[in-house]
Amino acid sequence: APGTVISISMASIALRQLLSAVTDHEEDIK
Q1: How many of the other CB atoms lie within 10 Å of CB of 29?
Q2: Helix segments in 1-30, DSSP class H
């Protein structure tokens, strides 16, 4: 279903943003 594809793509984008935010935070700590 198209709605499922949109949900998955949005979830992957959110996950990617979360990962980049975490790595940026770790770099700031160093």
Answers
A1: 5
A2: 2-29
* 19 DSSP 8-state letter: H
Binned at pLDDT 50, 70 and 90, residue 29 comes out as low
Task: Give per-residue pLDDT as tens, 2-16.
Answer: 899 999 999 999 999
CA distance 30 to 24: 10
State which amino acid sits at residue 29: I
Closest Cα partner for 19 from 27, 6, 29? 27
